[in-house]
Amino acid sequence: MDSKISSFLGIQVPTFEKKNKFNFFDSVLFIDKSEEINFSENIDENCLIVLQENAKLNFNFDVNEISDLKINASFKFICKKNSVLNLKINKNYIDDEFFDFSNFYLSMHAGSKANIFCNIKNGITFYKFDFDLKEENAEINFKINYFLNENSKSAIITNQNHCSKKTFSKVCIKKVLDNGSRSYSNNVIHIDRNSSDCNALQSDRCLVLNNACKNLSIPSMQVLNKDISCKHASTTSNVDENQLWYLKCRALSFEKSRQFLIESFLVS
Questions:
Q1: What is the rounded CA–CA span in Å between residue 101 and residue 119?
Q2: 101-105, 111-115, 163-167 — which is least confidently predicted?
Q3: Reported pTM
Q4: How many CA atoms lie within 13 A of 129 on its CB side?
Q5: What gap in Å lies between CA 227 and CA 79, rounded to an integer?
Q6: Fewest CB within 10 A of the end CB: N or C in the chain?
Q7: Would the pLDDT of 214 be above 70?
Q8: d(CA 168, CA 71)
């Protein structure tokens, strides 16, 4: 897997940690039972975060200025019964050579819910997200937007693991590539044999702004139960020339028309 990513992106990629190898943490955060916490802090180390029963965590992770040119971190979230995690990650890397290598693991228990939104601009980024829905009524909603410019490269691996019945997961990946940037994604849905009445969705869409860009998306499903709803999709396309022409006819410049279509693609 890692050698395939390295070959496609043209740089050496470190080995992704397996989810059960997260045994050492530099910091630990516990959210007590029925407590609600708003947390905003940049973390570039191995971190364990535990949400107790009925707890709620609003976690905003915003990186706009960099003091180091390398991040290598692992985050493990354990969401107990009926807890809620709202995670927002916004990373705007001014330096295209910035290297960000991060692992995320979520363990979801009965009735817990996680809403994750990521907005990534430029840099060299490698992300792995493992979602384990371990008990009934656990839910994951995940969306990540990329905008990659010259020399930027990204790789993302997602695993939606339905380990119990009546669980829900949705993964939505959108990428805008410009000026020779490259993107790789490998997205897997796995539904166990005893995980009936599950709903799993996966979407990977890429908008390519010039022919020098490269995108490789590998969606897959491993379904061992027939009583489920499971869908996946992957598309790579260019800016629609007819839509661009229509906007230009409304007195918008080429740049404004293209920007409008890009923004529409990301929010749709």
A1: 15
A2: 101-105
A3: 0.90
A4: 26
A5: 26
A6: C
A7: yes
A8: 31
